[in-house]
């Protein structure tokens, strides 16, 4: 799986990217709607232990301006993340920006992540789903690999996403 993504950004810079893709045997709108529904995130994303909708409607695709609190599995030693939908093209593209939550349940003043989901209709009832994640490193962050930007750790999550949307998840 190491060939899923070859980073072009040198390790000494303050940004990391990861892109993962999968073909889902469903129409693009179905894939988009399922992937952009906040409550589905813990069903497939390997690091999300739970979600809380702070602005928006639970159980439906998130709209522009909607806000989610994502809880991270404790073993990753990460603070919860607050994500806000900043771009949305229904059925095609969805982008959120994320900030760490500080100890007093207030979001950090600056964003640390951008996640973009895109769906491409392949013309035969199937969809190419892409997840691009960009993580900005703070001066206090380790420059080594982080699980959230490891394509080999993310791809099994996309396999779960595919199984849920196709109705084959166990």
UniProtKB/TrEMBL annotation:
InterPro entries cross-referenced by the UniProt entry: Polyketide_cyclase/dehydratase, START-like_dom_sf
Taxonomic superkingdom: Bacteria
Protein known as: Polyketide cyclase/dehydrase/lipid transport protein
